[in-house]
Amino acid sequence: MFRLRRYRVFVAFTVIAVLALYKFGSSNPSWRDQAAGFAPGHRDNADPQVKWEPKPQVANGPKQFGVEVSAAKNPQTKETPPPIASVARPVEKTSTTAPGKKSIPVGVGVGHGAHVEATPTPRADEAVAQAVLGDLLSSSVEPIHWIKTKEQYPVPTESIIALPTAKPKPIPKIQAVFKKETDAEKVDREAKLGTIKDVFKRSWSGYKEFAWLHDEVMPVTGSKKDPFAGWGATLVDALDTLWIMGLKDEFEAAVKAVEKIDFTTTTRVDIPLFETTIRYLGGFLAAYDMAGKTHEILLTKAKELAEILMAAFDTPNRMPQTYYYWQPGLSSGSPLASNRVVLAEIGSLAMEFTYLAQLTGEDRFYDAIARITDNLEGYQNHTRLPGMWPTYFDASGCLPHNYNTAPNKPLQKPITAGDPGWEEALKNGAYLKADPSQPLVMPAEDDSATTGDEELSPSGKKYIPLEKPPPLEIVPNGPNPSWKPPPEEAFIWPGDTKAAPKKRQLDAAGFPSDPEATPFKPTCDNPGFGPSSSGGREEFTLGGMSDSTYEYLPKQYLLLGGQVEKYRTMYEVSAEVMKKHLIFRPMLPNEDDILFSGKRYVSGAEPGETPATELEPEYAHLTCFAGGMFGMSAKIFDRPKDLEIAAKLTEGCVWSYNMTATGIMPEAFEGVACGSQKDCPWNQTLYYETLDPAHENRASQYEQAMINYEIRVKSASLWYESAMQAYTESPTPTPVPVKAGIALSAAEPTAAAGSVLDKRQLTDLEYAAPPSQNGSLNVGRESAEDADSADSPTKVQLQVEEAEEPIPTRVMPTFPAIYSPSVPLSHEDYVNTRLEEERLPLGVTRIKAREYILRPEAIESVWYMYRITGDPSWRAAGWRMFEAIDKHTKTAHGNSAIDDVTKTSPNLNDSMESFWLAETLKYFYLLFSEPGVVSLDEWVLNTEAHPFRRPA
């Protein structure tokens, strides 16, 4: 039975906590800001597993915006907290606002933009509170909105790079000429199309039911998450797929929902420029054009979003902030592009902004990305691997210094006052040698007139004497009563307005604090790209953090109708470097003639030295796009040899799917690179050496361990023999201790080591006497009367003390525990054990990442190769891939990423990224569509598989 008295303290504390949460939760602005998700990395209703990674900080401090655009305003209705009800949260229908707004219970007044959705999942920090307090914390605050401001670094109208609008140049055909299919082939193809469409519809239904207008659905639990600003990434990303698959009703419903997306607010403090551009901007533009340009809302939303993204380009060198801090106060100041920017994030914006310029006729969108291309072109042949760009480099192009400072002068040698011409040299940048007799700080100069008696500076001006504080006296027994603090005006603290600082004084930040001094402003001394650091090593790859930059070179050439030749030149230069330094043939037991693309690491070198390079024979799923890129470029640039490379790279991806238990390629694995792409025999010895490079050291270490073991055994044996001999020998007679001049016989009991005589021992002493008053024992047989007698003998006393030398206990010695070293596995056993435990296919030396997250890159290249060659074997390979993926990733609400493709029954990771509907299923569907559906001779696809119409 519940006893109130026992828990009265707890009950009182709970009541106080409830009232405090309710009070401060509805009134304290800072608390509301945190609850609304304005802290870095917070996402409203986000999944706890989604981790936020810190992004580069804004270069300068925040500054409040001063210009507003009325079109960017979106009035919101504040919600009022519901009345305190029972602890149990009632189940009720909810209506919600656009992303960034909280759900509002039905019946409460709803402002502009509200719509109906499922009950949102509470944030992790509110889950426990809601379970106890019901609806106490369901109140929300009005979200912050982005406001357009005047550009700090505008491009003059006459300097805007205009979009090429001339007639397109003739470009060779990409697609093969397909023969007419038979009736049986058509039936089989259409059946497979229907199966792929059913998988799409199941995933789309899961998104509609559980995550409508959110970024992603979690297909196992039916939850939702918002990693991409919460603007409905899956909804926008899948628009053109809905149209291609003929799901027109679903397309119309999705277009209607798009109207409710508010791009001026998000629970993220930063907007990821790359992901937002390829998914949202690309999705809107492709759907608008594919649907016949009849849904104007799609283009309107694209322009609204682009207006916000263009603000990220407002930097001194017009290079964008790849993570744009959009909130007023964070997006102001003098921001710079990152000095460690990711190549793909800045180099993969060209197609979307170019297509937007083509559809709207606004050159400024093309100008933004054309400047990036110019800088990439200038940097391409000046990297450590000329022809390619490292995964990270410096895009800021700006050095923070006083913008009107004269150029740096050459370093001068120190001079001594009195040297010939020392005054003139001092004016030109020389400096004086240190003089121990002079103060270390040069006094400031005074512009007032001189009297002729004072000491003058080299420039002929008076010195301002330095103010020194009064000396301190050391008083031994207390404070110095004569000491007084200096006058307050003697010091000027940072931020103090009581006295104006002198010219030479600096503020706390190190800049002139004089209000009339030149303000700090960053200047672009070198607007181009450069290395992030002079030391270390740089990575060059076609995989993650680089991939789409290279992909966009030939695709941008197509999108511009071949009018900008630099895109072809840049691609062809990089392609030669890729073939020489990245692409390799893996050593395989069946000697399959396939190709992989790895990573090349290049270390820094001193001028005149050749940098050290190293190939990492990795093959990543992200790199599988390269087959399609090489194949398409081989056709449009007339490079027939590259078409062979494209086929072998794509076959490498198909082989990677076939090698695992699930029939799915892992995220990344490594193999053994052959020295030649033409001749690559299987070398089991080399393969075993790669798997077990330390087998010789392991054998020698075991031999040394055995030597040490034998030495320890011999040493322990000698000790044991000695200890046993001491144990078995007769004990040495114990000498009789002498106390106070009286010897005790060996037969009499003595105190044990570390102890004193107890009562029983005292009783056993036949000459024991009662204790005396001083605590000693009277030794003798005299009576009390005899003791008082003058003629009685002198009493002898025995002091009870510890023995000086303890007598050891006789215990049989124990042989020390010595463990023999484990016998190591032989070289062959070690390799076989590793192959079995790590489930390594023959030829693979390490699987770096075992998961599959529904990636599209492999089927993308398979589709390209089918459209380019017309070979039906590519369709067969693609169907095997589709069946394997759907079998192991299928859930009730869609398809999910899996944890390990090498297991026969992998675990579901409860994640379905938007590219599953935008890319992966689209490529599978197009593989079995008629060749005229999204023909490569009419469309060019961005890196998110959004088709853009090529100029005719």
Task: Write structural notes for this entry.
- A hairpin with a 7-residue loop joins strand 1 (94-96) and strand 2 (104-105).
- Helix 16 (626-636) runs antiparallel to helix 17, helix 16 runs parallel beside helix 23 and helix 17 crosses helix 23 (857-869).
- 33% of the residues are buried.
- The protein is an alpha+beta fold and 952 residues long.
- It contains 25 helices and 29 strands.
- Its cofactor is Ca(2+).
Morphology:
globular
Query: How many distinct helices?
Result: 25
In terms of DSSP E residues, the strand content is 5-15%
| Rg for CA atoms | 42 Å
Strands across the major sheet, in which order?
Answer: 2-1-3
Low-pLDDT residue intervals, each spanning 5 or more residues: 23-139, 400-414, 429-443, 466-521, 738-803
Structural class: alpha+beta
Number of strands: 29
Q: Main β-sheet: number of strands, strand sense, barrel status?
A: 3 strands, antiparallel
On the 0 to 100 scale, the average pLDDT is 76
Helical proportion, percent range: 25-40%
Distance between the termini: 84 Å
EC number: 3.2.1.-
Family: Belongs to the glycosyl hydrolase 47 family.
Pfam families: Glyco_hydro_47
Biased composition (Acidic residues): 444-456
